[in-house]
Amino acid sequence: MGKLFDFCGGRKTTFALLLFIAVTAILFLDKCDFNQFSNFVIWVFGSYMIGNGVEHVGKGLAKKT
Question: What domain range includes position 36?
Answer without folding.
Answer: 2-64
